[in-house]
Amino acid sequence: MTEKEMSIEVVRAKIHRVSVTQADLNYIGSIQVDEDLVDAVGLVEGEKVTVLNCHSGARIETYVIKGERGSGIISLNGPAARTCQVGDVVIILSYARMSVAAARKFRPSIIFPDERTNKLKS
Predict the structure, then answer these.
(1) Which fold has domain 3-106?
(2) Of 17, 50, 90, 97, which has the fewest CB atoms closer than 10 Å, so is most exposed?
(3) Catalytic residue positions?
(4) What's the DSSP call for residue 31?
(5) d(Cα 21, Cα 85) in Å, to the nearest integer?
(6) What is the pLDDT of residues 68-108, one digit of tens each?
(7) In the β-sheet with 74-77, what is the strand arrangement from edge to edge?
(8) CB 76 within 8 A of CB 28
């Protein structure tokens, strides 16, 4: 297979270091993220994401649901709630599949919110 025929997954969007505010085992599932952060990085509700827990090293896949705008909410729900505790710092990543040539030119959307408040820095 030549490079022209290949496609690879690259980081498309990243919310770097936010604090978990809730963990709800009895919720249906997903990660709930403040809508301000969802919009700032260009995530889509229902989009698959990888959540990296900086405290425990856990790495899980789930999907995004929008949380209340301006609330700072980061809530791991359903089985994902077992992978974290309130106060843990996480990184949220989404990926896109593209050609190798496109990947060399692509630049991901990355934000660095205040990890204490989960708000965008002004």
Answers:
(1) Barwin-like endoglucanases (2.40.40)
(2) 97
(3) 30, 63
(4) E
(5) 8
(6) 999 999 999 999 999 999 999 999 999 999 999 999 999 99
(7) 22-24, 74-77, 30-34, 59-67, 48-53, 89-99, 7-19, 109-111
(8) no
